[in-house]
Design brief:
single chain; Metallo-beta-lactamase, Chain A; 7-stranded mixed beta sheet; 14 strands; about 25% strand; binds zinc ion
């Protein structure tokens, strides 16, 4: 299995996962044109996509979905409530290949790749995080959630790689430019993962197994890549598993990763 991130953060999210038989996009939050351009830039032919899976209906995750799915005739896996919230014009919706609806803990098997939707605490209709498993390796895609509940942490055991949200630094969010209500929403239990909560997960729940931890969905206003990285490294410094954690942690820029990770 290999994966790359095409875009990350409030301006758009999309993760590309490829195995011997299958290639999927998790979210399509850029325009279809930008998604195709970025897939091509990492040496991937968009015609090889098998399907697109949607974590939730926020625009930074579905912005290019309708056009891309129709252009490439891709089956779309999405929760029923999230699909309703897309509010697509009837004609447009009718032209999309809707796959079996996503449901929590009901794995989607596409050739040699299995995707597991896991219910996540986030202010959307029916939000999921995912694990992707193929050939005995597992990747966790864990963004857009206010905190990491035990049932999510449990599913992440054994991951060889983790894409983990590090949305905001608490102090920067409090002192920053967002209106009070938005600050409350972002910091809330159904908001986004702070550096502190990400670090708490790494300190208390993380099994130390992942060779790659890719911090993602950073806020441009309320976080800094160096702060997110430092929070992760400090959390891992005392971990019972000893690794070169400096080499394990990557912070994703908004424009995504310039390369693939192979597991
Ligand atoms: Zn998001
Ligand atoms: Zn969201």
């Amino acid at each position: 299995m290999r994966f790359t991130i095409l875009a990350s953060g409030s301006t758009g999210n999309a993760t590309l996962i490829e195995t011997a038989q299958t290639a999927v996009l998790i979210d399509a939050g850029l325009s279809a044109r930008a998604l195709v351009r970025r897939m091509t830039a990492v040496g991937f032919d968009p015609a090889r996509l098998t399907a697109v899976l949607i974590t939730h209906e926020h625009s930074d995750h579905v912005g290019g979905l309708s056009v891309l799915a129709r252009q490439l005739n891709l089956p779309v896996f999405i929760a029923p409530a999230a699909r309703r919230h897309l509010r697509l014009p009837e004609k447009e919706a009718a032209a999309i290949r809707w796959a079996d609806p996503l449901a929590p803990e009901q794995p989607v098997v596409l050739g040699d790749l299995t995707l597991m939707p896991i219910a996540a605490p986030h202010d959307a209709a029916e939000p999921f995080v995912f694990t992707a498993t193929a050939g005995g390796v597992k990747l966790g895609i864990v963004t857009d959630l206010g905190y990491i509940p035990p049932q999510v942490a449990h599913r992440l055991v054994g991951c060889q790689a983790l894409i983990l949200e590090a949305n905001h630094d608490g102090d920067m969010l409090r002192a920053g430019p967002y209106p009070w209500e938005l600050k409350q929403r972002v910091a809330g239990r159904l908001g986004h993962l702070s550096n502190d909560e990400m670090a708490r997960f790494l300190r208390e729940d993380f099994d130390g197994n992942a060779a790659h931890i890719v911090l993602a969905h950073l806020s441009r206003q309320n976080n800094h890549p160096a702060l997110a990285r430092l929070a992760a490294l400090q959390a891992l410094a005392g971990h019972t598993v000893h690794r070169d954690w400096e080499a394990v942690i990557t912070v994703t820029p908004p424009d995504g990763l310039p390369h693939w990770y192979t597991l």
